[in-house]
Amino acid sequence: MAVRIAVAGGKGGTGKTTLAVGLARAFLSTGEKVSLLDLDVEEPNSHLFLSDLREVNRRQVISSLPAVITEHCVACGRCKEFCHFNAIVVFDKATVLEEFCHRCGGCVLVCPERAIVEKEVVIGEVIKAVGRGLELVSGWLEVGQANPGPVIREVKAEQVAGDWVVLDCPPGSGCAFVESVEGADLLLGVVEDTPFGAHDFRKVVQVARNAGMRIFAVINRYGMGNGDGVKVCEEEEIEILAKVPFSEAAHRALAQGGDPYSVSPDLKGILDWIRDALLERLER
Amino acid sequence: MRPKEIVVVSGKGGTGKTLITALLASASETKVICDCDVEAANLHLLLKPEEVSSQRVRLGMVARVDTGACKGCGRCWKTCRFSAIEERNSRAYVIPELCEGCGVCALVCPRPAIEMVEEETGDVLFGQSEWGEILYAELLPGRGSSGRLVSELKGRARKRAMALGCSWLLVDGPPGLGCPVISAVSGADVVVLVVEASLSGISDAQRLLPLLRRFDVDILGVANKCGISEDLDRQLEGWLEEESIPLVVKIPFSPDIARLYGNAIPPKDLVDISALANRIQ
């Protein structure tokens, strides 16, 4: 069984993608089979750090949107009454407000006139690319679509070859994050060593704990902030696998799309260390 | 008069949205400040409001199964579009984190064994900071209704700004381009687009822009963490120019700014955003 590692942080810009891509490379360097899933489908970025990949597959994510057949609609208002999202208004006929619709299908079920049908809409894309032994599956939410959940689910449903599956998760602690980490074997938190990183990581920990997941942490930008990131891990009794020092040089290299595993010997060493720590903790 | 609504967004996280919102707050006279990143609220950690009051809000619904009444027929889990119901011990089991509260399961249940109940969404908080009143919210971890919490929070902030006769309602937006961002940007007069001078920062802002264009808003550009590479700076500036978005402020990448910020101290003396404040006025 493949091991699924969810790389998450709560706060945005803490280094999730850097760690996810770097860790995937570190596993690869020891001959392990690795798949990387970019689940930040609103703003996927993993591919930017993996310039040598070749696209092998691309498919659309389809969802259904209710459409009213106006000739059949008698404006009874049952659909509007049922809809929990206020996504239907009824004047002389029912009208669906697309941006509020959650695609639950309820209006179709309650309409006594069968005047609501579902039409298919493209809400995103799943792209698979390979190169240098690595497999990357990225999800892309169609811009203007509000709900990333179905696209995240499609990325996770993709058949992957890796014995190690690294999940680059979205920021936050809401539904996109929950969808992303669901089913993961462990959560690897990237915690910025600042009051902000600490505050947001705490929420991530609550979700992961509720799901019964094992949690490890990597402190990022160690030395830049006030030490709250380390403190929160101690309070929550989460093992810190590594502390990555704040480095201007690393920031410069990564901003330009450098591969995290190759930009500096220091960072490579830390990534190898984290990989080995995970292998040991998981007794692999 | 209706206050001018200014929303700060960037697509990517960690680009400096909160920093710029805080500095804008310090640069204007009368305003209400509102942090719409309800999944990872940070502005209050920087502005340190006092006498914070908090109110629990219930904005969503969640399905609840009466396991005594459930016969395990499976209609609910077969109909649920969100994979939020599973079969466990031959009974329906709701995964609350995935439940969107649509009520379809309760509709199709023949018993009936499913009831829709109100769900706590999170807390709306309100406090007084040195630079103005701040409203923010903390989504309960894992809840699905962050977009609705954003709308609720913004509605309250608008009312407050009206009541106080403020000229500005200043909004710190969430990352990404999904539901919470759409809720945060809707109703804005001015959007401040913060573009980090990095490959991912530029790429994410480029993806966000078509969404912003759907709203009737003025877009002002701020470039952050500049000077890392001439190439990136040129790429960033060239793109904004192409899109006719004025680049109002350029902030250099600076470990000094990062260190102050990392200690929750707004780097007022190191970053001058008066040009942005003037432009909005």
> Regarding CATH, which class of the largest domain in chain B?
Alpha Beta
H and E order of chain B:
EHEHEHEEHEEHEHEHEHEHH
CATH architecture of the largest domain in chain B: 3-Layer(aba) Sandwich
- List unreliable stretches of 5+ residues of chain A: none
Count of DSSP helices of chain B? 10
Mean pLDDT of chain A: 95
- CATH architectural group of the largest domain in chain A: 3-Layer(aba) Sandwich
Overall pLDDT of chain B: 95
Question: Largest sheet of chain B, if any?
Answer: 9 strands, mixed
Provide keyphrases for this structure.
heterodimer, A: 284 residues, alpha/beta, Rossmann fold, Alpha-Beta Plaits, 2 domains, nine-stranded mixed beta sheet, two-stranded antiparallel ribbon, 9 helices, B: 281 residues, 10 helices, 11 strands
Write a concise synopsis of the structure shown.
With 284 residues, chain A is an alpha/beta fold.
What does this structure look like?
The complex is a heterodimer of chains A (284) and B (281). Chain A is elongated, with a radius of gyration of 22 Å. Chain A has 9 helices and 11 strands. Chain A has 284 residues and is an alpha/beta fold. In chain A, the strands form 2 sheets. Chain A has a 9-stranded mixed β-sheet, with helices on both faces. Chain A has a two-stranded antiparallel sheet with strand order 4-5. Chain A has 2 domains: 3-52 and 132-281, P-loop containing nucleotide triphosphate hydrolases (Rossmann fold); 63-121, Alpha-Beta Plaits. Chain B is an alpha/beta fold and 281 residues long. Chain B has 2 domains: 4-48 and 130-280, Rossmann fold (3-Layer(aba) Sandwich), CATH 3.40.50.300; 59-120, 2-Layer Sandwich (Alpha-Beta Plaits), CATH 3.30.70.20. Chain B is built from 10 helices and 11 strands. In chain B, strands 3-6-7-2-8-1-9-10-11 form a 9-stranded mixed β-sheet, with helices on both faces. Chain B has a two-stranded antiparallel ribbon with strand order 4-5. The mean pLDDT of chain B is 95. The chains are: A alpha/beta (284), B alpha/beta (281). Chains A and B meet through helix 3, helix 5, helix 6 and helix 8 of A and helix 4, helix 6, helix 7 and helix 9 of B.
